[in-house]
Design a protein that fits this description.
The structure holds two protein chains of two kinds. Chain A contains 25 helices and ten strands. Chain A is elongated. Chain A folds into three domains: about 210 residues, MetI-like fold (Orthogonal Bundle); about 170 residues, 3-Layer(aba) Sandwich (D-Maltodextrin-Binding Protein, domain 2); about 90 residues, Osmoprotection protein (prox), domain 2 (D-Maltodextrin-Binding Protein, domain 2, 3-Layer(aba) Sandwich). In chain A, the strands form two sheets. Chain A has a five-stranded mixed β-sheet with strand order 2-1-3-10-4. In chain A, strands 7-6-8-5-9 form a five-stranded mixed β-sheet. By secondary structure, chain A is α/β, with parallel strands linked by helices. The N terminus of chain A is likely disordered. Chain A starts with 5 loop residues before the first helix and ends in a 7-residue tail after the last helix. Chain B has two domains: about 140 residues, P-loop containing nucleotide triphosphate hydrolases (Rossmann fold, 3-Layer(aba) Sandwich), CATH 3.40.50; about 70 residues, no CATH class. In chain B, a hairpin with a 2-residue loop joins strand 4 and strand 5. By secondary structure, chain B is α/β, with parallel strands linked by helices. The model of chain B has no long low-confidence stretch (mean pLDDT about 90). Classes of the chains: A alpha/beta, B alpha/beta. At the A-B interface, helix 22 and helix 23 of A face helix 2, strand 6 and helix 3 of B.
């Protein structure tokens, strides 16, 4: 599925473009994921609704909720409510772990749904807390540093329990910051540990810019190990690897399960002073789910201690370099490494549900187009229904109009990813939060154009309408709205085109659409996949423009088009 | 039929009308004339209830024009403004029949009335389906007049209806309006700054200045016995060089 499209085939031969490291714990994940995180809730604060904008948004959401709480998307609705729902973050390792969880639990009763690459830490943890998913793979370091700030490592389990979440034993590998060198170079110099670097002040270090900046990055490391090196440069991460291959630098920062370790033949130096925080992988379960499905939890917990760092590196490498589907990687790992019977041969002899046939790219395109159009059309329709009356009120009551325009303008400035994150506690994940967010963004162009279109009607014409005896309502229907229709329609068109683009972000909260391949493509550094989402989105935007040209001919009175 | 009693009105800080007294007799054509800014258009707006007087009273057929009566007043009044004030999104027919549709007239009744008006105003029937931008200035004013007459009102108010027309079209329309007003016997109030037009159409002329009526009478009375300097000045300023030849 991942590599099924025409673009991915097209782009398979050249080396994949690698994204820079990002600030999320899934630092290798996309820039988008970094954005998603940086736009999540303010550091050190709860989900307080102390911001007036947030309050407005929440009120709006509360008001509009009935309109948009339709049935969940097909992927979820096809499974009964008792289905096991697994989540994962927008980076490959997390998706592989989600697939391992799926492979471990599939064919044991309850159907399994894996909501892949749902979003960044805040989104996925939020989804777990809100009961949208039952479990996902997390890292202890992320819990300590980002989710439960200030909670010491040994108190994580109890702090999570207070939130109704259970933490499994460590899965076996630790994905923390590390330093790496070319294996042969390290061997020549006899370096195996970070403390060995102290004896080699001539070594040239090339670190990602974020590692240079972080307190626990180079600054902390240098102090902890008394490192003498002076030749330290902050570079793009990909360039750092190339510099290493070309012999321009000797030491780089990396994550301990990076596939690059294998690809570039690196030696990971032992953090012998334990400077870097531990990022041990664990499962997080909802407590209510864990109670209701003890067998499933037992099956998942049985993996504890059995996913080694080399195994994780190998799986990451297969996904990223060899473009093998995460499902396949996970299934093979479960079958071979953990010795669990393959899905198709379950104990009771009944055949497991047949493995999902890979979706043809045309079919995938059709499905995504349908999902995307649904998001755009429903949100736009809601916006039209709300924004045109608002624009009318704004035009007829100038004082109220300033308030209405002001509020819609403020709503427009809420970053879209932040808005999506705000929606999750209220609407969960899936299409509802995406539609509400798109609705909010569609308001301003329509309200503003309705207002401007009505205000632009010559005063003499409105006076004539009144003098003829048309009341406010009749005048609106017979005169004002037809005369303002070109402006109103232009506003709707603007909203529609913007919506087509913005709707790609809906994939961050599991709403599907063209954003799905874009997100996956960013995660897998697969330009072809990104284009599989981006090109249809651009074409759809053009198509929407053309459609509105036709609509204009129908809606705008002929007399105004002469 | 129409009466303003001691009406004052301030608009945007300027005193537009200063205790004006004015009557328009039923079945006759009264012309409000005066320099720009003398308040003549404001008088029409007050008669239609589009503005409320600051003090004094506006009466329509004996009843005060106010929130309770304004709908009835507007139903019995036709209004024509400069350039016609036609709705650009409606055809000529659409403009003329808008209020009849609003009042749920049936189609045959509407068609009968349109036929009458087309004949009355000498408007080319095949141009009824055209949009205002497709009509000439004179045609637009004829459509506007048809629209004003559609519901057969008792009163017709015209605010500089011919100011934007070229002289030939204007002369033709003036002649037609005169014939129409005579034939229909409606109460007509026409606002203009053109003395010739006032003379051709008006049974009575009310010369206004600075928000008050300075002199009223026929054109001949105004010319022969101007009340003051301003009146003779206003009249002489409009004498055509043609008269001296």
């Amino acid at each position: 599925m991942v590599t099924s499209g025409p673009f991915s085939r097209l782009f398979r031969s050249p080396p994949p473009v690698r994204g820079g490291r990002v600030s999320e714990r899934g630092r290798r994940a996309s820039r988008l994921a970094r954005l998603a995180l940086s736009l999540t809730l303010p550091r050190g604060r709860g989900r307080g609704s102390d911001s007036p904008v947030l309050v407005l948004v929440l009120v709006l959401v509360a008001v509009l909720d009935p309109g948009c709480s339709r049935s969940p998307p097909p992927s979820a609705s096809s499974a009964p409510p008792t289905a096991l729902r697994i989540g994962s973050k927008t980076f490959t390792e997390s998706v592989i772990l989600g697939e391992i969880a799926a492979a471990l639990t599939q064919g044991h009763g309850a159907p399994v749904v894996h909501r892949r690459a749902l979003g960044g830490t805040q989104i996925v943890f939020g989804a777990l807390a809100a009961g949208e998913i039952d479990l996902y793979a997390e890292y202890t370091g992320t819990l300590a540093q980002e989710i439960l700030r200030g909670v010491p490592e040994d108190a994580l389990a109890s702090a999570l329990a207070a939130r109704g979440i259970r933490m499994s034993p460590h899965l076996g590998f630790d994905d923390s910051y590390a330093l790496g060198m070319k294996a042969d170079h390290a061997a020549r110099l006899g370096i195996t540990r970070i403390s060995d670097l102290a004896a080699h002040p001539e070594l040239r270090l090339a670190f990602s810019n974020e590692f240079m900046d972080r307190a626990d990055g180079w600054r902390g490391l240098r102090a902890a190990y008394q490192l003498p090196q002076r030749n330290v440069r902050g570079v793009d991460h990909e360039i750092a690897y190339r510099g290493l291959d070309a012999g321009d630098s000797d030491v780089v920062d990396l994550y301990s399960t990076d596939p690059e370790i294998v690809e570039h033949g690196l030696r990971v130096l032992d953090d012998d002073h334990h400077h870097f925080p531990t990022y041990a992988a664990v499962w997080l379960y909802r407590e209510d789910f864990a109670r209701s499905a003890p067998n499933t939890v037992a099956r998942l917990d049985a993996v504890a201690g059995r996913i080694s760092a080399p195994a994780m590196i190998a799986m990451n490498l297969r996904a990223k370099r060899d473009r093998v589907a995460e499902e396949t990687i996970a299934a093979e790992f479960v079958a071979h490494e953990l010795g669990a019977p393959p899905k198709s041969a379950t104990a009771n002899g009944t055949p497991a549900p047949p493995a999902r046939a890979p979706e043809g790219w045309l079919r995938a395109l059709g499905r995504r187009t349908a999902e995307h159009l649904f998001l755009v059309a429903l949100s736009l329709l809601m916006a039209i229904v709300v924004a045109i009356p608002l624009g009318i009120v704004a035009a007829r009551r100038p004082a109220l109009g300033r308030l209405i325009l002001g509020v819609t303008e403020i709503l427009q400035t809420v970053p879209s990813l932040a808005l999506l994150v705000f929606m999750i506690p209220l609407l969960g994940i899936g299409e509802a939060p995406a539609i509400v967010a798109l609705f909010v963004y569609s308001l301003l162009p329509i309200v503003r154009n309705t207002h401007a279109g009505l205000r632009g009607i010559p005063a003499s014409l409105r006076e004539v309408a009144t003098a003829m005896g048309l009341g406010p309502g009749a005048s609106l229907r017979a005169v004002d709205l037809p005369l303002a229709s070109p402006a109103i329609l232009a506003g709707i068109k603007t909203s529609a085109v913007i919506n087509v683009g913005t709707a790609t972000l809906g994939a961050l909260v599991g709403a599907g659409g063209y954003g799905q391949p874009i997100l996956t493509g960013i995660r897998l550094d697969n330009v072809g996949l990104i284009l599989e989402g981006a090109v249809p989105a651009a074409l759809l935007a053009l198509g929407v423009e053309r459609i509105f040209d036709v609509v204009e001919k129908i809606v705008v009175p002929k007399g105004l088009r002469l | 039929m129409l009466e303003l009693c001691g009406v004052s009105k301030r608009l945007g800080g300027a005193e537009v009308l200063r205790g004006i007294d004015l009557t328009a007799a039923a079945g006759s054509t009264s012309v409000l004339i005066g320099p720009s800014g003398c308040g003549k258009s404001t008088v029409l707006r007050l008669m239609l209830g589009l503005l409320a007087p600051d003090s004094g009273m506006v009466r329509f057929d004996g009843a005060e024009v106010g929130p309770r009566t304004v709908d009835a007043v507007r139903a019995r009044t036709g209004y024509v403004i400069q350039d016609g004030g036609l709705f650009p999104h409606l055809t000529a027919r659409g403009n003329v029949t808008l209020m009849a549709h609003h009042r749920n007239w049936d189609a045959p009744r509407i068609q009968r009335r349109v036929d009458e008006l087309v004949a009355l105003t000498r408007f080319p029937a095949d141009a009824l389906e055209r949009f205002p931008v497709e009509l000439s200035g004179g045609q637009r004013q004829r459509v506007s007049l048809m629209r004003a007459l559609m519901l057969d009102p008792d009163v017709i108010l015209l605010d500089e209806p011919m100011a934007a027309l070229d002289p030939l079209v204007r002369a033709e329309l003036q002649a037609d309006l005169r014939a129409i007003f005579r034939a229909l016997g409606k109460t007509v109030v026409l606002v203009t700054h053109d003395l010739t037009e006032a003379g051709r159409l008006g049974d009575e002329i009310l010369l206004m200045r600075d928000g008050a009526v300075i002199q009223r009478g026929t054109l001949a009375e105004l010319v022969r016995t101007p009340r003051d300097e301003f009146v003779s000045h206003f009249i002489n300023a409009q004498r055509s060089p043609l008269e001296t030849l």
